[in-house]
Amino acid sequence: MRTAASPAPESVLVVDDEPALRALLAFVVQRTGAVPVVAADAASARQLAARHTFACALIDKNMPGESGLEFLKWLRTEQPGCNAVIVTAYGNVDSAVEALRLGAFDYLLKPFEVDALEHRLKLALEQYRMRQEREHMQAMLVQSDRLASLGLLAAGVVHEVNTPLAYILSNLDWLDEELPSLRRSVAPQEALTLGKRLEAVETTLRDIREGAERVRDIARDVKAFARDSDDGSILVDLREVLDAALKMALVHIRYRARVVRDYQEVPLVLANEPRLAQVFLNLVVNAAQAIPEDGGEHEIRVRLWTGPKGEACAEVSDTGMGIAPEHMAHLFEPFFTTKPRGEGTGLGLFICKSIVEAFDGAITVSSLRGEGTSFRLTLPPHVRESAAPAAASLEAVAIAAS
Ligand SMILES: Nc1ncnc2c1ncn2[C@@H]1O[C@H](COP(=O)(O)OP(=O)(O)OP(=O)(O)O)[C@@H](O)[C@H]1O
Ligand SMILES: [Mg+2]
User: How far apart are CA 247 and CA 77, in angstroms?
Assistant: First the structure.
């Protein structure tokens, strides 16, 4: 089954030695939409809590062996974020005070109404979610600070790179003009030897120009991002943007996979072209990086089509290693990376999401470990008509051979 990035339901630990009550408590947990994880005593509950994180716990106060309150004390140090509700038949004010003093979120007397327990558990879950949300917001604030500094840094680096780059490109222009006249001035008796050497020089210069122009394009994209402007929105044909991104990613794809383009009719979208190109470039580079360089038959497939509501849809899929289910929820977070230090910043997908959402679009992912990954993008159409009346095309291009 494919895993999709949606928030997983919270788990609630149920600890009770009475089988019937355990089943009832588990039933109430299910009614709140959470997942019950049951234990018949504190010892097995400890083992479970060592492996899983729980949003809440329903703990019987009186159990043979370690008591519910002792277990509560341990749980508070192990999982301080877990909201514990103590359930007991032997309740009195003192034991309630003791439970609350030990950090219980709530205290409930048996026999209890199922509705009452459900209500209390919902409150405990709600408080857990609010605390999670607050912690997430705080982390985002710290990250947005880091991103702002990164933006400044990127703008500075681009500025520094652009000056020598302009010098390199203008010198290449001069060489382009100079070489033909040099070739013409070669004496006929040297034409064979010198002519061949000049040809090799010209080929090398073409490669240098290609590299320098790629650096210039990357610098322009980084500058557009660092400036964080969404000016320059125009009607964009996604086919052109995808083709441009594939061209830029060629060096990453070349020895890993063949590219299959499946372009159906797709509406034009109102967006900033370089920024959309950056989205596709990040997705294609990620796809290539997920494919091992083992000479296997791998594929990166790019698709474009019109969605059921007329929206523009795009997909980049690969036959790479796939994504671990526990990573799915974190992919779009800034600085989340599984790549070795120095190889990935973990900003690629975060940037993709920010750009797509700035154009009122959405991005989703599905993946199967060992089989591959698909990133899907939807963008609102600018016009209902298709970009061009071209027939649907399915074209396989062996990039390595091109
Ligand atoms: N196509 C894919 N297949 C498998 N894993 C992927 C794929 N795309 C993204 N990932 C996972 O998502 C993580 C985050 O991706 P993201 O593009 O944000 O950062 P990165 O690629 O690690 O770093 P950077 O983009 O800065 O080079 C990656 O480290 C990788 O674990
Ligand atoms: Mg990336």
Answer: 54
